[in-house]
Amino acid sequence: MNETAITVHDVTAHYGSKKALDQVNLTVPTGAHFALLGPNGAGKTTLVNILCTLRRPDGGTAVVAGADVIARPTQARRSIGVVFQDSSLDDRLTAWENLEFHGLVYGMAAKPRRAMISTVLELVELGDWTHEIVRTFSGGMRRRLEIARALLHRPKILFLDEPTVGLDAQTRQRIWQYLDRLRRESGLTVLTTTHYIEEVENADIVCIIDHGRIIAEAPPEQLKKDHGIRWLHVVPQDATAAEAIVQRFPQAQRLSGTGLALPAGDDDRTDAFLAEFRDRLSEIRFHPPTLESVFLSLTGRELRDRADGQRDADRAAGRRGGRR
Ligand SMILES: Nc1ncnc2c1ncn2[C@@H]1O[C@H](COP(=O)(O)OP(=O)(O)OP(=O)(O)O)[C@@H](O)[C@H]1O
Ligand SMILES: [Mg+2]
Question: Has this prediction a pTM greater than 0.70?
Answer without folding.
Answer: yes
